[in-house]
Q: What sequence folds into this?
C-alpha cells in the first residue's frame, strides 16, 4: 500500500519560498507527531515536499518542483518525498513509523599541521541547524583555540552541502526552549558579541548559509564561499531582528547602503553578491572551499602568532573606538611584539636569509 502524493501542499503559500524558504519552513515542519496517523503521514509528505523546495533555487520553488519523482530530482535534492510516499504498514494495516536517518548532532575538531584547529559543524540531516547544545560546543572549541598556545589559527567548516539553515527555532524560542542563557565571558562567543576570539579564524561556507551562519562567519576574519552559497538574513520575516551581530557586521564589512539593502528586505542573495559587498573574500568552486580555507590558514603559519593577534586587536580597536584610539595603542603594541621570542627569530631569519620558525612566544 502506498499513500498518494498530494497534488497540492497544505498549508500552502508556496510562493513565500521565492522570497526566503526558511521563513515558511518553521511553521510547517516542527514537532511532527510520531507515530503518524494517516493524516499525520500526509502532513509528513508536506514536510518532505517543503524540504525539497528548500534546496531549490528561488525560481524553481513551485508545486511542480516539490513533487518531482526521484529520477528527475536535481543533484543534492533529498529523496525523502518518494520514501515517505511509499509509506510502511504495521501489523494491523495501519501506517507504521516513517523511518528517517538519525540526525547527527556534533562538532568535530581536528588539528592540521600541528597548529591549525579545524572545526566542523556536523548535523547534515538537519542542514546543520544549530541547537543550544551545538552553540555551546562551538563556544568551547573556540575557547580551546583561543587558550591553547600551540594552536595558532582556526578554520570553521560545515559538513554536507550546506553551511546552516539557521537555528532550530523551537529549541531557542518555542515551548521546548531550554530557557535563557546568562551571558558569560568564560568562553569565546561564536558571534563575537562578548568575549572574542583573539586568533585568526577562516570560515568556509557553501549552499544554504542563513541567519546565524552569516553572523558566525562574520565574527571571524576571512570567509571563503563556494559559488553555490546562498545567503539570507531572514529574521525580520519571522518577527525578529538579527540578534547575532548582523546589524554590526554587515555595516562594518559592506557599508551602510549595502547592509541596509539586504537587512531591510531579508532577501536571499548569492556568492557573487556577497563577494561584491565584502561579506566574503574569495569565491571558489563548490567542494573547494574547505581546502582553500586551510590553505589560507597555512599562509598564516608563516607569520608570528603574537604579531597576528596584535594586528587583529589593533584593527578591532580602530573599528570599535576609532582611529585615534588605535593609533594611541601602537607604541604599546610595538613594545609587546618586540619583547617576544618570535621577534628575535624574525630578525635572525631575515639576517640569515632563511624561513622563520615561529613558536608563538
A:
Amino acid at each position: 500500500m502506498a499513500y498518494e502524493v498530494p497534488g497540492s501542499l497544505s498549508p500552502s503559500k508556496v510562493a513565500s519560498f521565492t522570497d526566503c524558504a526558511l521563513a515558511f519552513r518553521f511553521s510547517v515542519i516542527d514537532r511532527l507527531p510520531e507515530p503518524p496517523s494517516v493524516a499525520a503521514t500526509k502532513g509528513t509528505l508536506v514536510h518532505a515536499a517543503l524540504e525539497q523546495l528548500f534546496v531549490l533555487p528561488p525560481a524553481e520553488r513551485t508545486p511542480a518542483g516539490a513533487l518531482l519523482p526521484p529520477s528527475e530530482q536535481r543533484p543534492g535534492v533529498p529523496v525523502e518525498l518518494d520514501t515517505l510516499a511509499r509509506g510502511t504498514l504495521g501489523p494491523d494495516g495501519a501506517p507504521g513509523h516513517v523511518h528517517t536517518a538519525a540526525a547527527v548532532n556534533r562538532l568535530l575538531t581536528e588539528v592540521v599541521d600541528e597548529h591549525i584547529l579545524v572545526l566542523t559543524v556536523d548535523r547534515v540531516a538537519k542542514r546543520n541547524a544549530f541547537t543550544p547544545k551545538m552553540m555551546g560546543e562551538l563556544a568551547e572549541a573556540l575557547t580551546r583555540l583561543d587558550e591553547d598556545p600551540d594552536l595558532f589559527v582556526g578554520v570553521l567548516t560545515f559538513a554536507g552541502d550546506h553551511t546552516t539553515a539557521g537555528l532550530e527555532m523551537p529549541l531557542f524560542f518555542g515551548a521546548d526552549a531550554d530557557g535563557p542563557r546568562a551571558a558569560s565571558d568564560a568562553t569565546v562567543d561564536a558571534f563575537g558579541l562578548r568575549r572574542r576570539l583573539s586568533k585568526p579564524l577562516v570560515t568556509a561556507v557553501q549552499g544554504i548559509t542563513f541567519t546565524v551562519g552569516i553572523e558566525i562567519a562574520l565574527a571571524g576574519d576571512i570567509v571563503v564561499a563556494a559559488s553555490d552559497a546562498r545567503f539570507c538574513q531572514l529574521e525580520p520575516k519571522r518577527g525578529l531582528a538579527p540578534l547575532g551581530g548582523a546589524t554590526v557586521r554587515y555595516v562594518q564589512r559592506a557599508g551602510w547602503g549595502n547592509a541596509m539593502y539586504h537587512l531591510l528586505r531579508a532577501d536571499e542573495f548569492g556568492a557573487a553578491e556577497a563577494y561584491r559587498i565584502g561579506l566574503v573574500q574569495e569565491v571558489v568552486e563548490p567542494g573547494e572551499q574547505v581546502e582553500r580555507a586551510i590553505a589560507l590558514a597555512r599562509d598564516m603559519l608563516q607569520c608570528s602568532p603574537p604579531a597576528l593577534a596584535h594586528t587583529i586587536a589593533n584593527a578591532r580597536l580602530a573599528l570599535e573606538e576609532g582611529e585615534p584610539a588605535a593609533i594611541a595603542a601602537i607604541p604599546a603594541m610595538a613594545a609587546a611584539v618586540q619583547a617576544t621570542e618570535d621577534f628575535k627569530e624574525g630578525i635572525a631569519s631575515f639576517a640569515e636569509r632563511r624561513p622563520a620558525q615561529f613558536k608563538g612566544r
Observations:
- Residues 106-300 form a domain with the 2-enoyl-CoA Hydratase; Chain A, domain 1 fold (CATH 3.90.226.10).
- The two ends are 69 Å apart (CA to CA).
- The first strand starts at residue 106 and ends at 112.
- Residues 246-263 form the longest helix (18 residues).
